[in-house]
Amino acid sequence: MIDQEWSFYTIRRSKMANQDNDNAGVSRRRFLQAGAAGLAGGFLPHTTPEASATPSRDLRDTSHIYHARNGMPAQNVAKVFEMAYGGIENFIGPNDVVVLRPNLQWPRNGYTNTDTGKAMIDLILTRPGGFTGEIIVVEDEHRSNPHTSSSSGWCTTNKASNGPYNWFELIQHYVDHAAEYPNGIHTDPVTGQINVSFQFLQGSNNFTLADPHPILSTYGGANFAGANSVQDGTVDPFMLLKNTYPTRNCLYLRRSDLVYSSAIARVSPLRNEYLMSYAVFKSMHSGLYVSMYRDHPTAWDPDAEAFTAQPVKLINMSTLNHHGSYAGVTSIVKAHFGVVYGTFHSTGWDSATPRTFYYAGGAIGYWMGTIRQPDLHMSCAERIGRTSRQESNAFAAKSVVISTDPVALDYYVGKYILFPAGGTYGAGGGSAAEPTTNDPSLPGGYYGLTLEFCRDPLADHSIINGTLNEAEMSINVVDNTPGDFDNDGDVDLEDYDYYQDCHAGPDLPPARPTCDMADLDQDTDVDLDDFDLFGSAVSGPDV
């Protein structure tokens, strides 16, 4: 701990405490004076970022995994894109239609962490060069009332082990603060909606948001018509949605020519054989149609009845939780339950002896190989469920991990984040060596079998969705330091400038909506407590 007798702390107590009353902070000059005193007295050593790699094959065949940990969610998200792409601007284009697909089935840590979700949306909206595209949050959580259910991540009030928002509240944040994202948020002149919106990929249920909805007043009174399902792979889904189902928000195409069956899976019997399906849905912002099918890489304009030049980027943003004794772990692979008509849940038997729920991994793998592989997978492992998807005090893993390989990423976060965290199914737990383990490398474990079925769903190598061989994974890990707001490996005056701009005082919202990194104690304000934590991390330039 830094010497508490620093003049840095004298300033903090005598000067900044008074300025909190004026919603102000410490001046740069006073901070510089304090920093000089601190350098004379010694600082905490700064943790050198760890970067380990195990490339065992040609890099073209290596699955690259990027893991940022121990920072604030905004730091971790920014860092993984810096490591993987050199910055978000090299992955997300200025006019992209970005489809974010979180898990929203359960409350608490059961839905994708909204601090991480906000960090991702903020990063896109503030990308260098600006953003003129749109962001759409989508999910099919297989409920008839996703807009009112207390269990739904859309609107739950049970946010323990998550961020300060549910996902409705997160989207409303951008409605309320649109003016503060001048180069990222814009309003469509026809629909009147901003370019951060949502869509329910409901299988069949109709519902109407209350008017005004207690959270999304912007969309108050909107009717959400359940998706029609068409079992015909030859039709034009865009024209069908426009002309046959003009009041619908979503249409599912079920491919009778693409069936995950016992025969092709080389197992007997599957509990249910599944037709592959994909959704086509409307943007509430632009009115464009967006497809989940790989042969539709750009958005479709219903007025011009033609594809636009706007690329569609699909990002799978999953939780990391032990799901149950029959299902193993909910992570990257199992998160795909929310992108199909119905669910792959009943592909295998969850109560049989032996249980074969892991057959669902094969159905998901077949979907990836025939319908679409998301452009990127992200494990939002800020808080993780070692024993349950609904924990009141879930383990703080403080991690964000990305890869284009869903199987390798799922394996990595399970073995090196979830399993070491302990609990009943983790390291040292009573079920650590049982089939229900959180260790994907345990032979015969349900989790590992789910990943193997996803990796090679037809058991003939005709579809391969990734690797379970650690020698074929390039692992890149960086330890972030809270307070290193510019992600340059030190905590210095440049970081202080960011903090100063964000300081508002206790129980007040931060000065800017993109100040999440400065809320170091994650209590929704930026005040003296955060300044204390910031001071303890100061290292000086290049230290």
Question: Which secondary structure elements does this structure contain, and how are they paired or packed?
Answer:
Blueprint: H1 7-20, H2 28-41, E1 63-69, H3 73-85, E2 97-102, H4 114-125, E3 134-139, H5 167-176, E4 196-200, E5 207-208, E6 223-224, E7 228-230, H6 237-243, E8 250-260, H7 262-265, E9 274-282, E10 289-291, E11 298-301, E12 306-318, E13 321-324, E14 328-330, H8 359-370, E15 376-384, E16 395-403, H9 406-418, H10 446-455, E17 473-479, H11 493-502, H12 528-537
Parallel strand pairs: 1-17, 2-3, 2-12, 3-4, 7-8, 12-15
Antiparallel strand pairs: 1-16, 5-6, 8-9, 9-10, 11-12, 13-14, 15-16
Helix pairs in contact: 1-2, 1-12, 3-4, 8-10
Structure, explained:
There is one protein chain. This protein has helices at residues 7-20, 28-41, 73-85, 114-125, 167-176, 237-243, 262-265, 359-370, 406-418, 446-455, 493-502, 528-537, and strands at residues 63-69, 97-102, 134-139, 196-200, 207-208, 223-224, 228-230, 250-260, 274-282, 289-291, 298-301, 306-318, 321-324, 328-330, 376-384, 395-403, 473-479. Helix 6 links the parallel strand 7 (228-230) and strand 8 (250-260). The model is unreliable at 1-24 and 29-60 (pLDDT under 50). The protein starts with 6 loop residues before the first helix and ends in a 6-residue tail after the last helix. It is of the alpha/beta class and 543 residues long. The strands form 4 sheets. Strands 1, 2, 3, 4, 11, 12, 15, 16 and 17 form a 9-stranded mixed β-sheet that branches.
